[in-house]
Amino acid sequence: MTGGNRHDVTQLLPLLDAIPRIRGATGRPRHRPRQLFADRGYDFDKYRRLLWKRGIKPVIARRGVPHGSGLGTIRWVVERTNAWIHGFRRLRIRWDIRDDIHEAVLKLACCVITYRRVRALC
């Protein structure tokens, strides 16, 4: 967890390193995703090269190119989820000083969101 005034791209590689192993077929499980979808804020050649070295295909919108790349349909899912989380006032405006309390409330909010979505399907 970092401060709000830090650029997101600086936390890209630590975030990828924190992804747990993916369970599935026997053999060597994948530890990293096959592709990374990101917006123009992550369009740096340095990070594209680092992603390729890790075996991850970067699908990053280019800066200076008009919209229409098709990434918006995938990006919308992330924005929608962020909007659901911001529905919890305690997470929208961070009042907690301690990181562990903030993370616990975030996980609790995700459980409530999941419960509401599952309940709507039944």
Explain the overall architecture.
By secondary structure, the protein is mainly alpha-helical. Helices cover 46% and strands 7% of the residues. The protein has helices spanning 12-17, 45-53, 72-85, 89-92, 99-121; strands at residues 35-38, 57-60. A two-stranded parallel sheet has the order 1-2. The protein is globular. The chain starts with 11 loop residues before the first helix and ends with a helix.
Task: Considering the chains and any ligands shown, give keywords for the structure.
122 residues; mainly alpha; globular
| Low-pLDDT stretches | none
Helix fraction, binned, reads 40-55%
C-alpha-based Rg, rounded: 17 Å
Mean pLDDT: 81
Order of helices and strands: HEHEHHH
Shape, per Cα inertia axes: globular
**Major pleated sheet:** 2 strands, parallel
Calculate the terminal CA-CA distance, rounded to whole Å.
Answer: 35 Å
Number of helices: 5
Total E-strand runs: 2
Estimated share of beta-strand residues: 5-15%
